[in-house]
Design brief:
The protein is mainly beta. The chain has one domain. The protein has a 14-stranded antiparallel β-barrel. It is elongated. The two termini are 29 Å apart. The relative contact order is 0.16.
Length: 388
């Protein structure tokens, strides 16, 4: 009988040692995701219809009719995420740092020009988002921008956005901030004023002046829709080889803006892929040509020597795809983090106001991801001594 007890004791000690060894091995092998925001790459196409110019008889004849199209590709890559436990030991704040970049190619077609100008816009910058865990979020995006045609020499501009977001409740948040932008065809500094009414995983209205106004609504598990109004535009260095400006300037500046009024449909089959199709009417279109030598005020704004603000409305089409990759931390019913995701997708990396689709926010009532969480997803959080 004594031998049996000794044998059982030895087996228990051996089993305990093996269990401890396996537990320590699992703990060193399993790694939890570092970031809340997915790595993202997207590409969008936009085009409007041909319109006639009717401001300056001489220059209108030299330029002919006008049509515009562009392909806009961008990315954001999180490289640093840190959680901070506040003094109450319950609330968690976090800091997110991301690399952001954008490459745009565009073609403003002036029918009377013998040789068309192709526009290129390149930016690479940094984005910072701080969520204090108690309803306040700070968002900053800063990026140098080079925008020119294939003939002009490059120059660098700087675009930036600073926004404070207050998440009052699940159904309401407001935003205040400042932006330095070129989407209105010149360099301007404008205040940002906005709010969101309705839950981000349901039907909600978002207004972010001067960037967009939208009414967003789910359409089943894989589709979402929105009605929206938003500006689209830019400022580019433009070669004067066509003698658009009569003075002896090698480079002038081409500015453009328009306001899109459209309907957008998004298809989100999974968290890694989404695509959208959008169309509608573009109104309040304007194009301009300016020279630094012609007139520049004290704020650095360039007065155009040619500007057409009354281009007739036209139909437009806008479509794109978004790819997300990399594992992320799980977030469910965290209203602050939902606002972090929305801010990150509302402000595109390249000062074009044409960014990725919003696929980070879990859909309302979709608990599939929670059901998929198994022991292997949390085993690195379990210590052997917790079982005793």
């Amino acid at each position: 009988m004594l031998r049996i007890h000794i044998l059982l004791l030895l087996l228990s000690i051996t089993n305990f040692a093996l269990s401890a060894k396996d537990s320590s091995f699992v703990k060193t092998e399993v790694k939890s995701p570092k970031h809340y925001i997915s790595n993202c790459v997207y590409s969008n196409y936009y085009s409007n219809q041909e319109r006639h110019l009717s401001i300056s008889p001489k220059l209108d004849k030299q330029l002919g009719s006008y049509k515009y199209s562009e392909i806009n590709t961008g990315f954001y890559l999180p490289f640093f995420t840190r959680d901070y436990v506040r003094k109450d030991s319950v609330t968690i704040s976090n800091l997110h740092l991301l690399f952001v970049g954008n490459f745009l190619t565009a073609k403003p077609v002036f029918s009377a020009l013998s040789e068309q100008h192709h526009l290129y816009k390149v930016s690479l910058g940094l984005r910072m988002i701080h969520n204090n865990g108690k309803k306040n979020i700070w968002f900053y995006n800063g990026t140098p921008v080079t925008a020119r045609d294939q003939y002009s020499s490059p120059s660098t501009k700087y675009a930036s956005i600073l926004v404070f977001n207050r998440t009052v409740s699940q159904k309401f948040s407001y935003r205040l901030g400042l932006t330095k932008t070129f989407i209105f065809g010149n360099r301007v500094r404008l205040p940002i004023i906005g709010f969101r009414v309705g839950p981000l995983d349901g039907i909600y209205m978002s207004m972010m002046l001067p960037r967009n106004i939208s009414l967003n609504f789910p359409m089943g598990k894989k589709f979402t829709g929105s009605f929206y109004i938003k500006p689209l535009g830019g400022l580019y260095d433009f070669s004067n080889r066509d003698s658009i400006y009569s003075a002896n300037d090698d480079n002038i500046q081409f500015g453009r803006y328009e306001f899109l009024n459209g309907l957008r449909l998004d298809y989100n089959p999974n968290k890694n892929f989404s695509m959208f199709l959008s169309g509608g009417v573009t109104k309040y279109n304007a194009i301009s040509f300016a020279s630094v030598d012609f007139q520049t005020n004290k704020r650095g704004l360039i007065a155009p020597f040619y500007i057409q603000k009354n281009l007739s409305p036209s139909l437009f089409i806008n479509w794109g795809v978004t790819l997300r990759f990399g594992k992320t931390k799980k977030v469910y019913n965290n209203m602050n983090m939902y606002d972090v995701f929305e801010l990150n997708n509302t402000f595109d990396p390249g000062d074009n106001n044409d960014g990725p689709s919003n696929g980070n926010i879990p859909k309302k009532g979709d608990m599939k991801d929670i059901k998929k969480i198994q022991y292997k997803d949390v085993q690195d959080l379990i210590q052997l001594e917790d079982l005793y």
